[in-house]
Amino acid sequence: MGELVKAQSGGLERIKDVLQAKQVLTDLMRGALVKGLDYGTVEGVEKPFLMKPGAEKIALTFGLRHEVQTETTYHNNGHITVHAKVILYHRKTGEKAGEGEGMATTLEKKYRYRWDDLGEVPKEWWDMTAVEREEKFGKDVVARKKKGKWHLFRKVEYADPADYWNTVLKMAIKRAYVAAVISTTAASEFFTQDVEDLTDTPIVQEAVVEDVREAEVLASSEQLERIKQLLEERQVPEKVLRFTIREVEKGLTAERAQKAIEKLESYPVKTKEE
Fold first, then answer.
1. DSSP-based three-state secondary structure for 269
2. Domain boundaries, the chain
3. 3-state class (DSSP) for residue 230
4. Could you tell me the pLDDT band of residue 29, with boundaries at 50, 70 and 90?
5. Which pLDDT tens digit goes with each residue over 31-50?
6. Could you say which architecture CATH assigns to the domain 2-110+160-204?
7. What angle do CA 25, 179, 265 make, to 5 degrees?
8. Residues 6 or more apart in contact with residue 274 via CB below 8 angstroms
9. What are the respective helix, strand and coil percentages of the chain, to the nearest 5?
10. H helix runs in the chain, sequence order
11. Residue 20's pLDDT band (boundaries 50, 70, 90)?
C-alpha cells in the first residue's frame, strides 16, 4: 500500500511539473520569445517552428545546460552524414533532464545542389513542350521569378561537398539541440521542428528567387530596428556599413539578420566626439 501511495504521489508531482512547464512556456511565448528570431511560422503548418535562439532561451529559463556527441560517416563520393546527440542536464543538480538527436548530410538537396541563374526566360520557352525544353536547354532547368522577372535556373551539383562539411555538422547539432529542448520541456504542444526540416530547397547562389524565399522567415521589425540602431551607435567600418545596408535593402532572413546584429555588436561604441 505504501508503494502505491508513493507511486501516486510521484505521478501527481510529474503532472504538476508538466503543468508548471506549460505555464512557463506560455509566459515565454507572450513575452520573451520573438517571432522571426526565436520562432517562426510556415503557411500550411499549424504550429510555429522553434529556432535555436528560442531553444536557448527556453533552456536557460528551465535551468538546463547541454553536452554534444557527434558521429560522422564519410561516404566514398566525398559526402558526409553527421549524427548528433544533445544531452540536457539540470544546472543545479547535474542530473540528466533529457536528450534529442539530429542528423544532417551533404546529400541533402540544399547542400548538394545550387541553382545557377541562366538569365531571363526567352519568349520561346512558354510555347515549348517539356520535351522540347529539355532538348533545347538541357535537364534540370526551371523557370522561376527573380525580383519580379522570370529567369531560367539550372540545378548544378557542387563540385566539392567538403565545402559544406562544417555547415552540416552545425545543422545536425542544431537539430538535435532543438529536439532535446522541445522533448525535455514538453514544448511539443507549442512548437514543431525547425524550418530547416520543413523545407528542402537547394541554396540559390547570386540570386534571390521569390518562390524560394517564401519558405524562409524574414527578419522581424525588431531585428531591423536593432540593426539600424547599431549602425548609428557603433564604429562600423565603411565597407561593413555599405554591405549591411545593401543586405537590408535586398531583404534579410531572420537568421542572417541575427548574424548581422551579432557582428555589429562586436564593434566599439562611438565616442561623443564622433
1. strand
2. 2-110+160-204, 112-157, 218-274
3. helix
4. low
5. 777 878 888 877 777 788 88
6. 2-Layer Sandwich (3.30)
7. 70
8. 235
9. 45, 25, 30
10. 2-30, 52-61, 109-112, 130-137, 165-184, 210-213, 221-233, 238-250, 254-265
11. low
